[in-house]
Amino acid sequence: MGGRGRGGYRGGKRGRTQRRDFKDGRPDVWKKQRSEGEGRADAERGWQPFVTESRAYEKYYKKQGVVPEEEWDLFIETLKKPLPTCFRINGSGQFAQDIRDQMQHDFFDYLKEEVEVDGEMVEPVQPLEWYPGQLAWTLNFSRQQLRKLPILERIHEFLKQENEIGSITRQEAVSMLPPLFLKVEPHHRVLDMCAAPGSKTFQLLEMIHKADKPGCLPDGLVIANDLDVQRCHLLIHQTKRMCSPNILVTNHEAQHFPGLKKKRRENAAELKTSDGETGDGFGEVTSRDAADGETSLLFDRVLCDVPCSGDGTIRKAPDIWKKWHCGLGNGIHPLQIQIALRGVALLKVGGRFVYSTCSLNPVEDEAVVGEILRQAGGSLELLDVSSEMPGLKYRQGLKSWLVRDKRKWLCSASEVNRHRAGAIVPSMFPSGKGWDQLDSNPEVGSGEAVEEADNAEDGGEKDGGTEKDDEAEEVEEEVASELEVASLPLERCMRILPHDANSGGFFIAVFQKVAPFKVHPKLKEQKNERRQGNQSVGTKDDPGVSAEDAPAPVTSGKTTSDVVKDTEMEDQNPSVDVSAAAAPAATGQKKDIVPAKGAKAIGQNDDISPAKGAKAIGQKDDIFPAKGAKAIGQKDDILPAKGAEVGEADAGITDEVMEDAPEGVESLEGGRKETSGELRERKVQQQGKWKGVDPVLFLEDEHVIQSLINYYGIRDSFPLRGHLVTRSEDVTRLKRIYYVSASVSEVIKLNYRVGQHLKISSAGLKIFERQTAKETVEHCAFRLASEGLPVLLPHMTKQIVHVSRADFKVLLGGNAVPFHAFREADFINSLETLLPGCFVVVLPERTADGEVDLTRSTAVGCWRGRHNVSLLISKAEAAQMLQRLCLADEEPKIVENKSIEGAEPSIKGEQEGTPGVDKNATAGPGASAESKSKTEDPALVKE
Ligand SMILES: C[S@@+](CC[C@H](N)C(=O)[O-])C[C@H]1O[C@@H](n2cnc3c(N)ncnc32)[C@H](O)[C@@H]1O
């Protein structure tokens, strides 16, 4: 019974909260440009179509052989067209099957074939062939076509509505692939290293919860990490729709993601299912387990969807045409390797690892994969997954490619000019041969000829594709020497080309860890050298990964900071701030770090624009404030609430430097040797920087816990102790209580110390919210949060009322519905005998034996006033539920919530007195401001 999420609960399924930030998606640059000057003639209003060509881009990719010559024209032509719209039906959403059936019967059956409208062909609406269960669909029609063909208008309306309440998610087709290749099971521990804005995290959570039975939680968890505090907000709100207690959102540089601990549990009783069987997932983390000791937490699955140049998204973001240059890929390559290697180190033997980019550039793709394999030295196998996604059109990975630098094509590291050896590193080439393995190295090597060319370029433009560049390039078009061919099985990588299935461009490599990861001794030596030099590389305080496991820097002789510095000179493009993203990795210099900037600019393959999304979150009016979390004002939804600065993302790195430093190492400031005691003291001082950061605390106040248990009649089958967390130390003032699964609870208990280890932005799901209504606060000061309803309901024994279909429709159709408006006397009696305050209305479906079937029943959170009932869901959600009921009963559709005669005014009166009520809400006291808005999703239809 009951339903996951705000919209109620049905079938133990997830909720459907949708926030405007997700509806908005990545800005539709096509549309924006069109609408900017609407109403005037193109010339008059200065509207210029996007420049959809770039000589530099075309020259680069033509040369690389990424696209067969005979397909080149089609490739380029496809890139110039806007991307079709794709969406995924949230598989665990309560109406997933209904939506799929409706797509199939109401729309697909009518639009199976191309249809001609005014001489233009309209493509059929179709499911993505390779996506399981026909849960992902693609459509491609313009606004003009929509106006002319009523069926398209109906589809558009339908999708708008479903998108608004979160039953579907707009997501690029290719971006759905990495989670599918990860093959996540409910008991898996999954790390999503670069997760924001979270469309893939959402899919991962769906997989974790795919076998949920009402009342049971899976044993797995997803740790979703992102460097950028602001993008972490998007991540939090995106994943919130899954109503999952099995998620932890963290805010680290992925290349420095801390090693975590878990209980050693060979014989431990709790979390019995760590071997893979499913259990109830509520296992209490008890002190008894502590005796069993601790061990490293390694992940069953790691997703490494790295920041990249993003040129595979050029159809969605045609501004890339103008900005593109080869330095973008070269510049981000070292960071991509660092992140990937950290991911491999944190992966279990036997576990799967997916590396993906939304770039077609071999330097960001095959070159990184090659380097991962080389550094993993046999501990990693690149899998051939070609048969795992039948119907997916892809190209095999390249075995040879070139590196372009300063208008030169380079075949091997031996051709790198010594002045460029910081920017162009051996790992970019197919053989990956380091300077020391080459006959010549950049110090003494073949730099001369190149230098000449470089000198000629003095004062010239960057590799940006100007006419002048092109003329110069004509002269030195020929590649100087033999192409290198990789000896690794890189053909197992998969590249999705846009013209194959009218999609974006994408790259995926799937690995399995077959043995513990040992870093090559040579690289270890280099790492030690750097440590001596007080540079921060590798991992810190890493109980999960042995010293050997710590991935070394990847630039074969050059530190990443060197690479970055050099790259900076090359990459003057402000939209890709490589230094911001990569410099901290190698230098650990706090002041240098501008994570938000770098992170925002790089890797824009997501479906949600940071700027728009952050605005839509609209917690306060400050949008993208200079000072990170403080100004964002997320209150206690996110950790660095007070005083946290963007640059604090590296607080852990400073610790890392100190923890890794051998005793007596020279202090950074003084030049004097510090004792270990002094180091410890300094570390405590560092923690001072975290002063004011809201901690993640377990709620242990017995009075509060007992009042929750008594008021809602919570059974022992739903343990609260050890599972409720808050962000406030003062119990009398805490506003929200979050519920975490046993798996998340354990991670927090063993790994969380403010300022020292795991930087948690958000944990679990909101289950209770403070309310202050006088008549109920004496019983219980907390009402049920909509997100928490599906998880708690199967374990509740009080404050539940069953309703008939007729009265449920009355309830859904009104605001603050008076008791006397209902038809059934039993229902009215039940309402009158309830304690005032929060309760749950259940529309039961029964089994053949007459038992309530929790998997099919529907439930919504409500508020019992003195004489009326209000819904705790948004107006849109209520309307949609009502519409479905009417459809099922073959009654005329009701599109709008209409007030019931005699109902009390919904905002004033009853709601004003209702605790915790957002006065902006349109459908009852629980409706949040964000869910009330009914804005059109601009991106569902291309202009
Ligand atoms: C390609 S996007 C990820 C998209 C995401 N996986 C999804 O499906 O919604 C890359 C992300 O990496 C983040 N990022 C950039 N540098 C990072 C770093 N060093 N560590 C962790 N995250 C980083 C960016 O903030 C950005 O959100």
UniProtKB/TrEMBL annotation:
Keywords: Methyltransferase, Nucleus, RNA-binding, S-adenosyl-L-methionine, Transferase, tRNA processing, tRNA-binding. One of its GO terms (molecular function) is tRNA binding. GO terms for cellular component: nucleus. Its main location: nucleus. The active site is at residue 358. It is found in: Nucleus. Residues 449-458, 468-481 have a biased composition (Acidic residues). Residues 75-514 form the SAM-dependent MTase RsmB/NOP-type domain. Residues 1-10 have a biased composition (Gly residues). S-adenosyl-L-methionine binds at residues 194-200, 226, 305. Residues 1-45, 261-288, 432-483, 522-592, 662-683, 897-943 are annotated as: Disordered. PANTHER family: NCL1 YEAST -RELATED NOL1/NOP2/FMU SUN DOMAIN-CONTAINING (PTHR22808), RNA CYTOSINE-C(5)-METHYLTRANSFERASE NSUN2-RELATED (PTHR22808:SF1). Belongs to the class I-like SAM-binding methyltransferase superfamily. RsmB/NOP family. This is SAM-dependent MTase RsmB/NOP-type domain-containing protein. It comes from Riccia sorocarpa. The lineage of its organism: Eukaryota, Viridiplantae, Streptophyta, Embryophyta, Marchantiophyta.
